[in-house]
Structure formats: C-alpha cells, structure tokens
Amino acid sequence: xxxxxxxxxxxxxxxxxxxxxxxxxxxxxxxxxxxxxxxxxxxxxxxxxxxxxxxxxxxxxxxxxxxxxxxxxxxxxxxxxxxxxxxxxxxxxxxxxxxxxxxxxxxxxxxxxxxxxxxxxxxxxxxxxxxxxxxxxxxxxxxxxxxxxxxxxxxxxxxxxxxxxxxxxxxxxxxxxxxxxxxxxxxxxxxxxxxxxxxxxxxxxxxxxxxxxxxxxxxxxxxxxxxxxxxxxxxxxxxxxxxxxxxxxxxxxxxxxxxxxxxxxxxxxxxxxxxxxxxxxxxxxxxxxxxxxxxxxxxxxxxxxxxxxxxxxxxxxxxxxxxxxxxxxxxxxxxxxxxxxxxxxxxxxxxxxxxxxxxxxxxxxxxxxxxxxxxxxxxxxxxxxxxxxxxxxxxxxxxxxxxxxxxxxxxxxx
Length: 414
Ligand code: HEM
What we know:
Layout: H1 5-8, E1 17-18, H2 33-41, E2 44-48, E3 56-58, H3 61-68, E4 73-74, H4 87-95, H5 105-114, H6 121-126, H7 128-144, E5 148-150, H8 151-156, H9 158-168, H10 175-186, H11 192-215, H12 221-230, H13 236-266, H14 269-277, H15 281-295, E6 302-306, E7 310-312, E8 315-317, E9 322-325, H16 327-331, H17 366-383, E10 388-389, E11 411-413
Parallel strand pairs: 1-2, 3-9
Antiparallel strand pairs: 2-3, 4-6, 5-11, 6-9, 7-8, 10-11
Bound molecules: protoporphyrin IX containing FE.
C-alpha cells in the first residue's frame, strides 16, 4: 500500500509516524529522517503501519538488545497482533507452517539445528578457496566483456548466488528463476497474490530438488533436510519451507551489501585503501562489520509480538502488543557508535552492531556474508584499481521502498 505525503509527515498530527520510513536520494546511506526524529526523542515510540496497526518501535540500541534476548518477545507470525511488513508477507504467513523464522524457544532451536551444519566456522572457512574461485571467474568474465558493466548483475548478485547454490545443492542454472522470485518478494510492493504465487513457485522448485535428494543425497543442505524427510521427521513441503528462507536471504542481502559498499568506498579513497591493502583478516573483518553497521540494509524492521507485559525504556509493552525493531537507527546511536554517520572502517566496536539482529534469531548466515563481502571487495579493488561509477550518486537506482536496501543496478567502468 502506498503512502501519501501527509502519511510520511510527522508534523502537527496526532497520528503516529508511518513506518517504515524512507531514506532520501540526497543522503542515501542515512536512516530515514522521520525515524531518526523518533529515535532522537526516545528509545521507544509508537508508529503506524500499512494495516493500521500501531506497534511499538524500538530505536534504542540497549533496549533492542534487551528485548531481542527476552523470551516474552515472540516471532510468531500467526499471532493476530503480529505486525506484518506488507500485505504480501501477511498472505505468505497465513500459508506457512512453523519454521525457524516464526517460532520461539526450544522449537526454534530445533529447527535452527536442522539447518546449522553448513554454517559452522570450520565449514565456512573451508569454503574460502571456492568463494575466491567464483569471485575470480566472475571478475574475469566481467573484464573480458569490455570496460564497463552493471556491477549489480555482473558481480554482486552472481557471487553470493553461486555460493548459496553450492551450500544448498541448488543448480546455479536456475538462478534467474529464484533471483526474480526473491526480487518480487523483497521488493516491498508485491500484492498478496504475487507474493503467494512466487512463494508457491519457490516451494514447488525446492520440493522437487528435496525429493530427488532423498534418493540421491549429496554434500549439501537440501540433502541434510532430505534425510529428515526420509526419517519421517519432516514432510517434503516443510523441508522446503525451512530452506526457502536460506535461498532467499542467502544471496539478495549480501548482493545489496556489495553494491552499497562499492558506492561508499569509491567515494572515500582512504577507506577503500583500508580494505584493499590490508593482509590482516581482523582488519578486513572489522571493516566489513563497519560497512554492515553503516548501511543496516534490513529496512523494514524486525517484527515481533509481546506475549507478556514487559517494562522497557520507561514504557510498558502489554501482552499482545506488536513490536518493530528499527536496526538502522539503533546502529546509528551516537552513544554506542560515536559519530555514527562517519564510515570509519577502523571503528573499535564495529562488530557490536545489530544489523544481523540479536539473540535467538540472529542471522544464521552472518559469517558467510562477512567472508563473501570481505573477499569480493578486496579482490575487486585489487584487480580493478581504476574502477569508477559512470553516474553521479543521485542518479543511482536505490531501492528506497524494498525490504532490503540496495541498488537495482550499478553502472561502472574502468
Ligand atoms: C549482509 C548480509 C545479511 C544481513 C544484513 C542479514 C540480516 C539478517 C537479520 C537482521 C536477521 C534477523 C531476523 C530476525 O531476527 O527476525 C537475519 C536472520 C536470518 N538470516 Fe540473514 N542476513 C544476511 C545474510 C544472510 C545469509 C548469507 C544467509 C544464508 C546463507 C542468511 C540467512 C538468514 C536466516 C536463515 C535467518 C533466520 C534466523 C532465525 O530466525 O533463527 N542471512 N538475517
């Protein structure tokens, strides 16, 4: 549902501010002005959403951490008060059984364990040579095609997509199909029908792959869940629903971070040099976390509902109240991150950000994302030192209205 101008205004209205806010073309990395205003006024406030709900908005860093760790805060998206992101997400929630994304406590832990195998530090470290190979080959292809490219489609999307395909055991030849379905789902404007349709298509696609892997397992995550199907622990479609989120979240988020990081670093040569020149994995890791903090790309907030009364930030959240966490403003809290609007890749506490969430549902793929981002950026700037944008920042097609912030295309030359 579209907002009107008056809906985004915070002035002279008794109505709470509309959420989510929108970043502006004049400062595309800065959190939405109206949400920064709320954050400046206090760590917790009320906003209103597309369906007329008035959830609590958590913008305070400490309060967010506290609530993410609180078992009285539930991720149950079947709860009648749950503040759905948009109509399409609500429609999909109605279809979905219980998964890692919408459960709490022991049940959530059980689902998460089923999918955890590829995300252990040892397995991720072992992926590095393969990630490097994909990055090198993708850059080779880009260079062979001329002296300009759309970096989003030539590099940022292919590398994480190739890796998530390998991790899950999905054929990369099908990338156009799942990338389009993801773009639709994350776009923020999908109708309920479109969202349901794209989810059903993705599930049908995964069902077939998982069924095949119950007969012929490989060394991948779909084979892990296929084993649970064979053992009668999960139905095929449940296994698909557990893994579809990994396929979706596993490429689009990292791809968006890559393009945004390139834009920011090309504009700040001294910061770019930190990434390009370091041989120290800790320095690179810290730089990547600062980029992730600074961008805080999950733009529509993390959604929850209170199941008991909770006192926080001078307010009482009542049982049944919807809650939204705004990660961008929490990550731009000046008390925790001094001069938060300065991208400082040597920031000492950069890793303390909340851009991957916090608590039980904290991003399962965060380490993979960090590894990919660091390796892609370092290789890109080392191999193409003359890389530059071909359009001014104001003309870049930023995703102001999407669930995950990023760009639709990034014209570059060298
Ligand atoms: C820069 C890249 C990424 C960002 C910013 C990001 C952000 C997030 C955030 C904020 C959450 C918390 C959701 C919540 O609490 O409701 C989350 C959860 C999750 N992410 Fe990521 N993510 C990224 C990359 C990835 C990758 C690469 C994968 C998979 C390979 C992935 C898979 C997941 C999954 C499955 C969850 C749900 C975990 C749970 O509910 O227990 N993410 N992510």
